[in-house]
Hints:
Blueprint: H1 3-6, H2 26-37, H3 44-52, H4 56-68, H5 83-126
Amino acid sequence: MTDTANKKIEKDPEVTQKAARRRFTADYKRRIALEAESCSEPGEIGALLRREGIYSSVLAKWRRQLREESLSSSKKSNGKTSPADQLKRLERENERLKEKLRHAELIIDVQKKVSEMMQIRSHEKDD
């Protein structure tokens, strides 16, 4: 074996611990999204992404949020949701519950039909 193969492999001291998740303020998100909206030349958005150290998917999300005027500094709203956001959330929940109710009613209907069929077969066997 060579000398390099005999050397004990040591951990790289340059490897850092897992980085903490970055949080961005609503003002920062709005500023970057507006700056991206004003980009008109090819490559400007790429330069903006590199300069700020963010991914294109993050920028796309911020731009969409800017259009919806719902930029916030984190996913959690700290209990302060706008009435429009609450309404959207409640409408989604209402639709989900309606679908769940429809599904439950279908199951009950099937159970009733199966029960009726079993009673009919039971009466036929008795005769």
